[in-house]
Structure formats: structure tokens, C-alpha cells
Amino acid sequence: MTNRRQLLKTAIAAGAGASLLRPEILFARELQTQASETIYVHPANGRDSNAGTKAAPLKSLPEVARRVNASTGTSAFTAFLAEGIYSVDETVLLSPKNRKFTKENRLTIRAEVLPDDPEWNVGRMPTLIHTMPLGSTWNGRPDPLGGVADGILIETSHVTIRGLRVLGIPVVESPKPGQIRRLYAISRLRRDLEDLEVAQCLLVGDELIAPNHVSIIAHGNGVNVHHCIFRGQKISVVYWTPGSTGHAMHHCVLHDLYGSAVWTAAIANDFEYRNNVVSDSNYVWTAQGGASASADAAGRGGQQAAPATAQAKEAVHYKVIDSYLAHNRRLAGSGTGARLEYKDIDAGFLEMIGTKTTEQSITFERDQSRRNYLHPVAGSEAAKIGAGLFLKPGV
């Protein structure tokens, strides 16, 4: 009510017309203005009926998605998340129908305080814990494996997710033979989309307590994952459309991935993979063939699989640049589907450039009060790669 009265006073002072003095109209216009530019979210002090201002924040990510989806225009939209715990109890579906984003005017969901800010510590990262029920369908088809959940489901181009701590879902992943109950924390399941950036995020799972089947799975072009830490999950990122271009993974730390530290489904050879630290993982890299990937990822709603492009039919060849691979069980494998039916393959499709492979383990910083918590310890050979949450050198 205080906000409405202030808006009323402002309109009177500005000499607004009689119709603009109606509080419900002023309040609605304030909501529209906020939705077109900036919105704030606070899990403890917010309410989803609020305007979304700094003084009157929203409470939940699903409500952010509803505001995005109802908005119009072409300007950027940024949601600032305060520190705290966010229970994601339904899929955060980002699917605006009347709003178009561009590379410059993006949809951004980010932490209020980012790792390079002087006042940041890991405890200030907004923490997403997934608590939604598992659904019986996935990617438009019935799921035969026991249930699946999408955390953030993206159905628009030009999206950035930055500075969040993303946890798994507290289920038993395989309670009986043949069952695999799965979380896909960040999903983009349409091939016609492009330009997804995930940066400075800490994506964590635990096989026993809160499994995270895949942190990021994305169709389309331009999936750029950088300055992230992945720990304890099955797979970090699935780059899923055969022949798709413009992808990158750089300056990431990937530790204890019990499936694969990255999965590429015959994406184009321009994949930028550099300055990554991979340690204690089952496979450093899983490569899926183009025909297999097209069949496995058949379009939503029962559509037939798209034919492999000319690029997807080429022999894949990727450069692993200035990275550090330590104490991993295997270098390369192939596989398909959620069952992860891997087999070892020749790693000749990976060209090592300035990259070190060692059987020695990496020591990580375990003091939670230090800014480099969960990074390779300062001064170590692995730390010199520059992987981790910080964009600025030496932070």
C-alpha cells in the first residue's frame, strides 16, 4: 500500500491525467516497467505478489519466469537474486511469447553479488535446491526410466545464468534395476535456439544425497559455459545437437564426475575447449556419434529425428588447449542415453595443445572461509591454469 500511495503522489505532482491517478492502474504500470528491465528476488523477505523492486522483491524463481513470460518488448531483462536458499519446487519455464531478446539485450538471471566483487564469499551465492516431484515425461515423450525433473527450462535465445550455486535433487537415483531418476538442472531442448551463457556458477551434486544427473543439457547453437565449478555430479554439460556451432567450455573446474566431465554429440569442430581442470572423473570426454545423437534426441512432441547435417557427418576433431587432466580413470568414451552405456574409445579425436595429463591427484582448497574454496590450492600447477569462478586474474 505504501508503494501505491507513493506512486499516486508522484503522478499528482507530475500533473497526470485523471485516469492515471487510479492506484490500480499506477500499480500495474509499475509492474510492467519493472518486468521490462530489472526485477529483484529474495527468498526470505520476498513475496511473489510484490512488484519485484529492490524494496519489494519477489520470492521465487518460478514467479520470475511468469513475469518474463508475460512481458513484452525488446529490452534486456535482468533478475537479481539475493543470497539465500531457493527451493525450486516446479520447473522454471522461461518461454516468453511476446518478448524478443538479442545478444546485447539479454535475459539474465544472476546473483546480486558476483565472485569478483570485493564483498563476495561463497556463502553469498544464491543456492538452488530442487524439491519438485519427478515427472513422467521428458523432452515431449514418456519417460520409461522412473521419472525426470527439469530445473530451469529455457525456450528463448540469448540467455545468461550467472553466479548461482546449483544443487541436485534429494532422491535415490537408481532404487531398482533399470530405474534412473534424473535431474537436468539447466535445460534447453529446442534446436532452433542459440546463445546460452552459464558463467561463474558452482554446480554440485552428490550421488548418495542429492544426485545431479546433468547440470546443463542444451540443443541449438552457441552454448558457452565458462568460469564454473562442477563437482560430484554425473555429467557437467551435454552439447546435444549434431553439427551445431559456436560452443565453448573454458576456465572450468570439473572434479569427481562419476559419468563424464563433458559430453559432445557430434557438435562442430569449432568447439572452444581450453583452460579447464579435470580431475578424478570417470571419463574426461564422452563423444556420441551424429546419427545416434539425432535418434536419441528426437524432437519434442514425437517429431522425427532431424537428419544429421554435413558437419555432423564429418569426423569430429577437438582441440584441448592449455588444460590440466589429473587422476582421471579414462580419457575418452562413447555412449548414449540416460543409462550411460559407455565403452572406451580411441582418444585420437582430441588434440592436446599445451595440456598436461597426469596420474597425480589435485589438492583443492577446503577452507570455506577462503575466496578460492573448492579451487586448486593457490600456487599449485593446476591453479596456474586459471580455472574457477573468478574472471579477474589473481582474485
Would you kindly provide a written description of the structure presented here, covering whatever features stand out?
- The chain has helices spanning 2-13, 23-36, 61-70, 290-296, 310-313, and strands spanning 38-41, 72-73, 77-81, 84-88, 92-94, 98-99, 107-111, 126-130, 137-138, 141-142, 148-154, 159-162, 165-166, 182-188, 194-199, 202-204, 214-218, 221-226, 229-231, 235-239, 248-250, 253-255, 263-264, 272-274, 277-279, 283-287, 318-321, 324-326, 330-334, 343-344, 350-353, 356-358.
- It is mainly beta and 395 residues long.
- The protein has one domain (37-385): Pectate Lyase C-like.
- The chain is globular, with a radius of gyration of 22 Å.
- The model is unreliable at 1-36 and 299-313 (pLDDT under 50).
Helix content: 10-25%
Strand order of the largest sheet: 1-3-7-12-15-18-21-24-27-31
Total E-strand runs: 32
Put simply, the count of helices is 5
Largest sheet: 10 strands, parallel
| CATH C-level name | Mainly Beta
**Strand percent estimate:** 25-35%
Which residues form runs of ≥5 with pLDDT under 50? Answer: 1-36, 299-313
> What is the CA-atom radius of gyration, in angstroms?
22 Å
Calculate the terminal CA-CA distance, rounded to whole Å: 44 Å
Shape designation: globular
Task: Enter the CATH topology name.
Answer: Pectate Lyase C-like
- Rounded mean pLDDT is 87
Number of structurally distinct domains: 1
What's the CATH architecture name? 3 Solenoid
Task: Please identify the structural class as seen in this structure.
Answer: mainly beta
